[in-house]
Amino acid sequence: MDKTLLDTDILSEVLKGHDQRVVRRAREYRSKFTRYTLCTVNVLEVVKGFHKVGREDLINRFLDSIRGEEVLPLDLDAAVIAGRIFADLERRGLPIGRADPMIAGIALHHGLTLTTGNLDHYRRIQALSYPLKLDNWRS
Questions:
Q1: Which one of 10, 13, 88, 98 has the minimum C-beta count within 10 Å?
Q2: 92 close to 58: Cβ distance less than 8 angstroms
Q3: CB 1 within 8 A of CB 30
Q4: What is the pLDDT of residue 44?
Q5: Those residues with Cβ within 8 angstroms of residue 11's Cβ, 6 or more apart along the chain or in another chain
Q6: Which H or E run contains 72?
Q7: What is the pLDDT of residues 79-135, one digit of tens each?
Q8: pTM (global) more than 0.70
């Protein structure tokens, strides 16, 4: 098992604990690495979702739940990679939104596998010859 950056969909599953396959893999991961690795883009997406429906209490609960986890920023190097990915996808008519290229850029910059259930979007990035490694804890 490689060190991995969690995509927002898998992070959400880990926190909810409904999918037993994800729960099992998350438990195995934590026993090896002691904490999860997520990024500021995950935080943005989760806060946006809860704020949109007026659930400030869930924002606070979420922020409490990730204290102690490794939270990687979208720094300059990751932003450059993400910008290139975003432009390459747009040029080929394969846009996937803004968040996924940023998350991929962070994973690539740090040499991490990206764990996601959204393989279709990220395989578009791989098809552009970016060396993005993917894993899916749902399968």
A1: 98
A2: no
A3: no
A4: 97
A5: 36, 38, 42, 46
A6: strand 70-72
A7: 999 999 999 999 999 999 999 999 999 999 999 999 999 999 999 999 999 999 999
A8: yes
pLDDT for 4 beyond 90:
yes
Residue type, position 24, single letter = R
- Please give the Cα distance from 35 to 104 (Å, whole number): 20
**How many Cβ atoms sit within 10 Å of the Cβ of residue 111?**
11
Six-digit token string for 93: 């008519």
Q: What is the pLDDT of residue 35?
A: 96
Give me the domains of the chain, ranges plus CATH numbers: 4-135 (3.40.50.1010)
pLDDT digits (tens, 9 = 90+) for 25-83: 999 999 999 999 999 999 999 999 999 999 999 999 999 999 999 999 999 999 999 99
φ/ψ (deg, to 5) at 38: -130, -175
Structure tokens at 79: 């932003």
Q: Identify residue 117 by its one-letter amino acid code.
A: G
In the sheet with 37-39, reading across from the earlier edge strand, the strands are 70-72, 37-39, 4-6, 113-115, 134-135
- Residue 73 tokens read as 């920023």
C-alpha span between 137 and 139 (Å, rounded): 6
